[in-house]
Amino acid sequence: MPKLLKDKTIVDNGWQVLPKDFDGVLPDTPCFVPLDYWLANKQNLQNPESIGVWLDSEEEPEALVADITSLQHIAVNFPTFMDGRGFSIARLIRERYQFSGELRAIGHIVPDQLFYLSRCGFDAFCLNALALDDAAEENHKLEDYLATFSVTYQACVNEQQPLFRRRQG
Amino acid sequence: MYIYDQHDKTLIGERVAQYRRQTDDYLAGKIPDAVFLPLRLQNGLYVQRLAPMLRINIPYGMVSATQLRALAHITRKYDKGYAHFTTRQNIQLNWPQLEEVPDILAELAAVEMQGIQSSGSCIRNVTSDEFAGINADEIEDPRPWCEIIRQWSTLHPEFAFLPRKFKIAVTGAKTDRAAIQVHDIGLQVLKNADNEVGFKVLVGGGLGRSPAIGVVIKDFLPAKHLLTYLEAILRVYNRYGRRDNKYKARIKILVKAWTAEVFADKVEQEWLQEIDSPSTLTDEVIAHAKAFFTSPAYENLDCESSEAELQNLAIEQIAFGKWRDRNVIAHKVPGYCAVHLSLKPTGVAPGDVTDSQLEAIADLADRYSFSEVRVTHHQNLVLGDVKVSDLPALWQAAKQQGFATPSIGTLVDMICCPGGDFCSLANAKSIPVAEAIQRRFDDLDYLYDLGDIKLNISGCMNACGHHHVGNIGILGVDKKGEEFYQVQLGGSALDDASLGKVLGPSFYAHEIPDVLERILNIYVDQRIEGETFLDTQRRIGIAPFKEFIYAKAA
After folding, report:
1. How far is C-alpha B501 from the chain's CA centre?
2. Torsion B429-B430-B436-B439 (CA) sign
């Protein structure tokens, strides 16, 4: 089974990501539906424990504002690890729209982005997106990536006060 | 200068450890090339034509004597004993070994230096005015604001994978010496009618393939909102800047596509959502930053007697007088001055220094200028706080080390990129062209008569040599494998910023000194009393130059 790094541990990932042009019958397993499908069908998709929404990097998190409190799982796609839009999308979802459920990074990310991704509010990372084969062996190391720096200058999702306010205190 | 506290030291140490691990993983084959690329770039490491190149940040151009000695040591131990000052106030090593870069970064960290985000698609080193804090025309010292921006942008988690590189420049003076109109964001510190400090904010300036002059999107941003507003600009750019074509990915393309009004409105809407967030600057943090940039212990000096002595010396030694006229700049404190150390002697690539020169500069700074040096975006250095009475001794010492070329601001004080001799992007060499020009125009009296002329040379359209904003710009182009040089006239990066216009078909390298001579002859023939080259060129246009040069060539 595919793996997921969640809350700093490796767990099974039972969730499917349905393709962007998905139309038809939902699978029995938990799944992320694409944003357009969600917006068109959300009245029939009110099962937050097993239905989440995924956004592509050019899509607008503003479209989910009305649904934030009813969702428990949101995923953001990185078409390539060089596409940094997902970092802004995540902060908006967490800080501006106050989403408190699972925020998952899918697509293509690299381990050295885990620290920044987690600062921006992601708390779940698909390991196949990280292109790591032996998840068990990498488990300890992935935790290390999340703790690369003990000092951060900026305010962000995981630290709401910038260093200059903490430093002065 | 800013001094690191334990937070800054911890962060930079962790950064070195991170990059050491990344390098080890890369060399062990655990990180593919495409993934390692942005990781090494964001620590300053390019892979160039002949070897890697390491770009080391000099935040807003301020470097200490201690740091210069460490740089000298690094160039000896890890490189070939020289380094290159860039147009963005940074310093580059041309021959480091990829395997040794973590060790270099560790040595840099020991003197509070780093290469964090000095390249790659992220927020780069913030640049400023080389006369910050010492010039009488200053409204406010820009350096505390630069340091606040440096910290905010360093390892910013949201903006490490932007569509393209992002450059911010700040000036606090009435005269812009930081070229803020050709940066992604330009900030001008000013005071409003109530004497409150704030910023005029420009966006969308830049050189490269699609040169553009920045546009004002905020006339007065109260200072405490600096970071929330910058964050709003960066967020809008990160979300909406083009990512499909790297040549259309800079913020200037987005600003043009949307129009400045629409872009400004989008930023405003984003900013208003975060306006009083904890990133709003407090009086305490502003005071804290300013405390690092207080005046050094200036003495009360007897200006009149030292001035009289210097006048006499200038009469006795004409060379001293010329050097003083060109290379020495007025200071806000009586009895002090700022002195350019020229890095443009004929026969040396503009901006290059050897290891022993770096140490000599450190010695001069210790002896004459409170142990600090400033890097200019014209690729020279400045000793900012020199006693006027020390000028004769400093002149002698600078001459011995090759820093006293009395040509600051003249035709031969040119900006020049490393070009095809080093850079893998370049279409043509630039250093030999610069040298040929210096050899042709070696008559100082002629150069002084020509007055202030900015000559900028780039080896390709990426424009590291800022050719678009040279009064005369030279651009290396490749035509079917041969190197040619296009000439542009009328650019400026000062308050009257403008982009140069192409003169006409390009020339062979060996033709360039003759072409320049003809251009200058037209200026000398046509100038009206007091006009600079740029004044005359703007008045008469480009046509007289075009006619004369191409008619003669035909």
Report:
1. 22
2. negative
- Write phi, then psi, for B319 (nearest 5 degrees): -60, -40
3-state secondary structure labels for all residues of B34-72: HHHHHHHHCCCEEECCCCEEEEECCHHHEEEHHHHHHHH
Kindly report the nearest CA distance between residue A62 and chain B, in angstroms. Answer: 12
Please tell me the distance in Å from B151's CA to the nearest CA on chain A: 6
Q: What is the C-alpha separation between B347 and B367, in angstroms, rounded?
A: 28
Dihedral class, residue A7 (left if φ above 0, else alpha if ψ from -120 to 50, else beta): left
Q: Which residue segment(s) compose the domain that A14 sits in?
A: 3-168
Contacts of B243 in chain A (CB under 8 A): 83, 85
CA distance A75 to A57: 11
CATH code, A109? 3.20.20
Q: Write the DSSP string, B272-288.
A: HHHTTSTTSPPHHHHHH
Please, what's the largest Cα pairwise distance for chain A?
Answer: 57
Q: Tell me how many domains chain A contains.
A: 1
B494 C-beta neighbours (distance < 10 Å), count = 15
Measured distance CA(A116)–CA(B259) in Å, rounded: 32
Which one of A78, A82, A96, A144 makes the best mutation probe of the B interface by having the most chain B beta carbons within 10 Å? A82
Size of interface A-B (CB pairs under 8 A): 104
Q: Which parts of B417-544 are beta strand (E)?
A: 455-458, 472-479, 482-489, 501-502
- Looking up tokens 């959300």, which residue turns up? A42
Q: Hunting for tokens 């911890």 — which residue is that?
A: B10
Query: CA of B287: which chain A residue's CA is closest?
Result: A168
The answer to whether B468 and B500 have CB atoms below 8 angstroms apart is yes
Mean pLDDT is lowest, of A13-17, A137-141, B476-480, for A137-141
The three-class DSSP label of residue B383 is strand
| In the predicted structure, residue A135 carries a pLDDT above the cut 50 | no
Chain centroid to Cα B392, Å, comes to 28
Q: What mean pLDDT, rounded, does chain B reach?
A: 95
Nearest to B35 among A85, A88, A110 (CB): A110
For residue B151, the chain A residues in CB contact (below 8 A) are 153, 163-164
Asked if A161 and B278 come within 8 Å (Cβ–Cβ), the reply is: yes
The reported pLDDT for the residue numbered B76 is 97
d(CA B218, CA B275): 14
Residue B433: DSSP 8-state = H
| CB-nearest partner of B278 from A85, A151, A162 | A162
Tokens of B470: 């040279």
Partner-chain contact B152 A82, CB within 8 Å: no
Contact flag A153-B154 (C-beta cutoff 8 Å): yes
Residues B163, A80 contacting (CB under 8 angstroms)? no
- Tell me the whole-structure pTM to 2 decimals: 0.96
Helix (H, G, I), strand (E, B) or coil at A128: coil
| % of chain B with per-residue pLDDT over 70 | 99
- Distance in angstroms (rounded) separating the CA atoms of residues B416 and B433: 9
B35 vs A81: CB contact, 8 Å cut-off?
yes
- Model confidence at A136, in pLDDT bands (50, 70, 90)? very low
pLDDT at B309: 87
Chain B: residues touching A (Cβ < 8 Å)? 5, 7-8, 10-11, 14-15, 18, 22, 31, 35, 38-39, 121, 148, 151-152, 154-163, 227, 235, 238-239, 243, 273, 277-279, 281-282, 284-285, 288
Q: Are B165 and B244 in contact (CB under 8 A)?
A: no
Chain A positions touching B166 (Cβ under 8 A) are none
Q: Which domains can be identified in chain B, with CATH numbers?
A: 6-110 (3.90.480.20), 134-291 (3.30.413.10), 303-401 (3.90.480.20), 415-553 (3.30.413.10)
pLDDT tens-digit readout, B280-322 = 999 999 999 999 999 999 999 888 888 888 888 888 899 999 9
